[in-house]
Amino acid sequence: MNRDHFWLTEEQFRRIEPHLPTDTRGKERVDDRRVISGIVHVLKSGGRWVDAPPDYGPRKTLWR
């Protein structure tokens, strides 16, 4: 993991996880922890979604 990137801790994700959907159909869900960390990274950095580091997964997923 890059030191400049934001990553949710185990404790932070444990608190968020009960609020995530569990009954989804269709496409398999992506790694929620990775995507949420990417969203927070972009919001904290003030950057553009398109410039999000690829470590967080598809940029379009972060944006949506």
Key attributes of the depicted protein:
64 residues, globular, 41% helix
Your description of this structure?
With 64 residues, the chain is an all-alpha fold. The chain is built from 3 helices and no strands. The longest helix has 14 residues, at 32-45. The chain is globular. The two termini are 23 Å apart. The model has no long low-confidence stretch (mean pLDDT 90).
Detail the topology: elements first, then pairings.
Blueprint: H1 10-16, H2 32-45, H3 59-63
Report the sheet-strand fraction. under 5%
> Judging from the principal axes of the Cα atoms, what is the shape?
globular
Cα Rg: 12 Å
- The SSE order reads HHH
Number of helices: 3
* Strand element count: 0
Share of residues in helices: 40-55%
Structural class: mainly alpha
Distance between the termini: 23 Å
Mean pLDDT: 90
Uncertain runs are: none
The major pleated sheet works out as: none
Briefly characterize the structure.
By secondary structure, the chain is an all-alpha fold. The chain has helices at about 10-15, 30-45, 60-64.
